[in-house]
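Spermidine/putrescine import ATP-binding protein PotA
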Amino acid sequence: MTRKAVEIRIEDLHLSFGTTEVLRGVNMTIEPGEFYAFLGPSGSGKSTLLRAIAGFGPTPRGRILIGGRDIAKLPPWKRNVGMVFQSYALWPHMSVRANVAFGLEERKVARKDIGTRVESALELVGLLHLADRMPSQLSGGQQQRVALARTVVVEPDVLLLDEPLSNLDASLRIQMRRELLSLQRKLGLTTIFVTHDQEEANTTADRMAVLDGGVIQQMGTPQELYDTPANLFVAKFLGTAN
Ligand code: ADP
Ligand code: MG
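Structure:
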């Protein structure tokens, strides 16, 4: 499943809902293979930015380059981007195996290859033994692992995760955080992880961007942001200011 990791570059991105501009000039480069966190309070624009990369929502102004190709104006299905949401949204009437196979069938992958790809994706998330269960027979954590398997099985260029652990209880969240990171390292996929939890960003991210009001307040490694917050907002949000 391993492919060459790609860079994500965002240039002067603006996005409005009606007359309200909610992304106000975003510029960033995410290196190939990075685990990158978008961190910020509720309403800061994290999901909007992630969805703009995936191709959902209003068309933005500016450029979004994935592996050097500007995808900002392409429909979602031409972007080869994989996204996992807070709610797992598995097909309730389909087995785990069928849920994971669905995207491959849609893409007309040869039948003989589907079985092996589905099994290796389920193996990757440790759920091969539950392949024939229905989603309702799984725990929340297991359902989210299936959602991950379903996303990576189609071999996206980048992995976008919008608060994927927020529905899980605290101890499971910490365990899944580690699993997610180890999965990402195995695949080497350029990954963006959205969270409002600074601890979650701090313990996983190679680098992160702190957003507020649709503007990136600071980017850097967790260490850099904690040691030298760029402004009072960042310091307060990371809990380093009094
Ligand atoms: P976050 O994910 O950081 O909580 P969002 O990206 O969801 O923030 O929202 C950023 C801003 O955009 C908020 O002010 C929100 O109210 C607004 N917004 C998000 N989605 C819509 C929408 N579909 N229509 C109008 N405004 C929206
Ligand atoms: Mg959000």
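The two ends are 47 Å apart (CA to CA).
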